[in-house]
Specification:
This protein is of the alpha+beta class. Helices cover about 25% and strands about 35% of the residues. Strand 4 and strand 5 form a beta hairpin.
Amino acid sequence: MDLESVKRNLEKKEGTEIALSIKSMPSQVYDSLILYGLHIDLAEPGRLICSMKVPPRLLNSAKSLHGGAMASLVDLVGAAAIATVGPPSTGVSIEISVSYLDAAFVDEMANEEEIEVEAKVLRVGKTFGTLRVDVRKKKTGKIVAQGRHTRFLGLPSNM
């Protein structure tokens, strides 16, 4: 692919239908875009299990769940799992690593594969929280992605 093709592929031009659609979106729409359709199947201290059907809006060009969407699930479900153990804040992400091991699809018949996202808190200290998040195919249990997530929980103010 030549450099002009790369540039055209990445830059979304003003005045196009998609640009107009994007500009009309409300602020902070990203989390809702990722989480819409997610159901909590189990919530206990330090652990969350959620499920959702892979929606067409989160597909990549190969018609499988986009890696960025999986990383976002690691981030968002991980933050929610931190909240189950009670720190005053779920903090901010300082490190996320995701290993992609398989794909989850929407097939030609628009059958959406169901995935399960399990977040387990490994440790919560005064300043940091660490989690492991698995994304797997609900039907088979096969792991699609495995994430490791560290969050800075903040320091209480002395003021």
